Amino acid sequence: VQLQACGGGLVQTGDSLRLSCAGSGRHYGVGWFRQTPRKEREFVAAIRWSVGQTYYADSVKGRFTISRDNAKNTLYLQMNSLKPEDTAVYYCAADRGGDSYAYDQAYEYEYWGQGTQVTVSS
Questions:
Q1: Pairwise CA distance, residues 30 & 47, whole Å
Q2: What confidence tier does 100 reach under pLDDT thresholds 50, 70, 90?
Q3: How far apart are the first and last CA of the chain?
Q4: CA 89 – CA 74 distance, rounded (Å)
């Protein structure tokens, strides 16, 4: 499984970006995490692929939207009203499978994309 994330860039506060992650279908759950040099990798959003149930970190709820395109086998993260604190490397990830789905835990995910940098200037 190869995940390829893209769509990051340098934007200003209040701008929008859409991240994409190709190759993310055929998994029970897929998600987005982000990481900065000062913090551990943190959960951003996740989706149960087949049913479309979504989950968000409190810090992004109402601003970010996770979605998927079955035909394109691609995961998206629409990020609106970006803030400087959203600056990070964003990773897409696909779960390892199993009976449970701890959607906000990095250990739940076996496959990771290479990361895409998002920088929000103030």
A1: 6
A2: confident
A3: 37
A4: 19
The tokens of 122 are what? Answer: 């103030």
Tokens in use for 37? 């040099």
Q: What is the pLDDT of residues 38-94, one digit of tens each?
A: 999 999 999 999 899 999 999 999 999 999 998 999 999 999 999 999 999 999 999
Tell the burial category of 3 from Cβ atoms under 10 Å away from its Cβ (0-12, 13-18, 19+). buried
Q: Which of 3, 4, 5, 20 is nearest to 79 (CA)?
A: 20
DSSP string for 7-37? --EEEETT--EEEEEET--SSSEEEEEEE-T
pLDDT tens-digit series, residues 15-26: 999 999 998 777
User: For the chain, give me the number of helices (H) and strands (E)?
Assistant: 0, 11
Q: Which of 29, 50, 2 is nearest to 107 (CA)?
A: 29
